[in-house]
Amino acid sequence: MKSGRLLFLCVVLALVTGCGGGGGGGSSSSSAPTGSSTPALTLPNGPTLPPVVGNNVLTVTVDGSECSPATLAQWPNKPCVSVTICDPANTYCQTVNDILLDTGDYGLRIFQQTLPAGLLTALSQNQVQVGSLPVYECIEYGDGSAVWGPVQRANVVLTASEQALNVPIHLIGSSAGNPSQVCAGNPTFSSPAAALYNGSLGLGFFVQDCGPVCASSNNNRVYYTCSGTSCTGAAVPLASQVQNPVAHLPVDKNGICLMFPSVPSGGTPLVSGYLVLGIGTQSNNGPSGVVAYGADQNGNFTTVFNNITYPAFLDSGSNGFFFPDSQVQTCDGGWFCPPSTLTLSATTTASAGSPSAVVQFQIANFNTLINSSNNVFSNIGASQPGLFDWGLPFFLGRNVYIGLEGTASGLGAGPYWAY
Predict the structure, then answer these.
(1) In whole angstroms, what is the distance from residue 280 CA to residue 356 CA?
(2) Do residue 91 and residue 191 come from a single domain?
């Protein structure tokens, strides 16, 4: 019997206020492992994608080869990539798989246990400091969990020709621990085994993971300086905050596109897709057949559901649809478990008030799906008050573009989503 981790990983920061609290725990059932007979919605991409090649393309697998096999039964809808991390001098490098691709976060976060001793030593010699004190970071996620560790400079290699050089990254699970207990999640993950991933790659549309708030206030609850066992809040300059590596690429630095095929209503064991760097910068990333929806300074647009308007966002790091609906039956763990598959609709609108579009989506019985042999589903979700999180199921069957703040493409000025 499998259990499904309820994961709502949009990062909670002073700058990004769109996230709320998430649920935790798994879900189990004695239901027979049968699939839904309700047809899947018609989406732009079919069940297979044409090959996408280029020096700006990474493979993304959802519960596939880029993910750790040990997590498959516990983490449905987990999008994974591999990333190479080097010290700024390129003396030591390590390629790490099982990196969660998270468009609700910004920057690379990697567990120190995944890196060899030589690279760890080299990174420690490139410690980000404020004054003479080392900078640490606490990231709290919408599902209640948190990660802690130092901020150090590294080269982040996405492809051989797409490298973000000498950028601050977050080294989590640090042996320095959390001495003042300033970072208190439920839980605070200290190892890949506990977190069920080796790290995360945040490729949302902000350049820094916190921004001006953390540059101007010591009381930002994100960045700290530590001396011995004492840690205190610290304002950290923008250039020293954890950086979205896409913003520092040599060419394809105005955004990304995620491409996934559709999946059947009963799910599928795994899905392979593409992360294409840049928007309209090469022949393989020109946007076609999509509309851009601008986001506000908090990283939100709006969604109207059941005649109520909610702040909303697209987040590949959330493994379901998370939205308020007290009328739908739930299972243990908070997942939706309606007796039959529901076809629902909501209206998404850019933060400026236009354009708008009606989006149809489905919610099926989570217990029935998760106890099948499949891991990837387009129709799972859970109740989440006060917001609308279009998680990984939204990306399945679509090409979704994410335009970075301060950049432009044929779709307009970032920040925006386009689909």
Answers:
(1) 23
(2) yes
For the four alpha carbons of 84, 238, 313 and 141, in that order, the dihedral sign comes to: positive
Residue 16 has pLDDT above 80, yes or no: no
Count of domains observed in the chain: 2
Residues 410, 401: contact at Cβ < 8 Å? no
Report the alpha-carbon distance of residue 417 to residue 26 in Å, rounded. Answer: 31
330 in a structural domain: yes
Q: How many residues does the chain have?
A: 419
Residues 243 and 307 in one domain: no
Please report the pLDDT score of residue 37 as a whole number.
Answer: 53
Structural domain boundaries enclosing 310: 283-418
Banded model confidence at residue 29, pLDDT cuts 50, 70, 90: very low
* Cut 0.90: pTM above it: yes
E strand spans, 193-334: 199-203, 223-227, 230-233, 255-259, 271-277, 292-294, 301-305, 308-314, 321-323
Please, which residues have CB within 8 angstroms of residue 399's CB and are 6 or more apart in sequence?
44, 45, 257, 258, 259, 287, 290, 419
259 within a domain of the structure (yes/no):
no
Domain-embedded: residue 341: yes
- CATH number of the domain within which 104 lies: 2.40.70.10
Cis peptide before 76 (omega within 30 of 0): no
For residue 307, count CB atoms less than 10 angstroms from its CB and return exposed for 0-12, middle for 13-18, buried for 19 or more: exposed
Asked if residue 32 has pLDDT above 70, the reply is no
**So what's the pLDDT on residue 73?**
82
For residue 238, give the amino acid letter.
L
The Cα–Cα gap between 91 and 300 comes to 40
What is the rounded distance in angstroms from the CA atom of residue 105 to the CA atom of residue 334? 24
DSSP state of 394: H
Backbone angles phi, psi at 176, to 5 degrees: -70, -10
Indicate if 290 and 244 belong to the same structural domain. Answer: no
The CA-CA-CA angle for residues 132, 90, 101, to 5°, reads 85
Confidence of residue 5 (pLDDT cuts 50, 70, 90): low
Query: Cα–Cα distance between 196 and 199 in angstroms, integer?
Result: 9
Phi, psi at residue 155, to the nearest 5°? Answer: -95, 125
For residues 15 and 210, the answer to whether their CB atoms sit within 8 Å is yes
The CATH number that applies at residue 351 is 2.40.70
Q: Which residues contact 193 (CB under 8 A, 6 or more apart)?
A: none
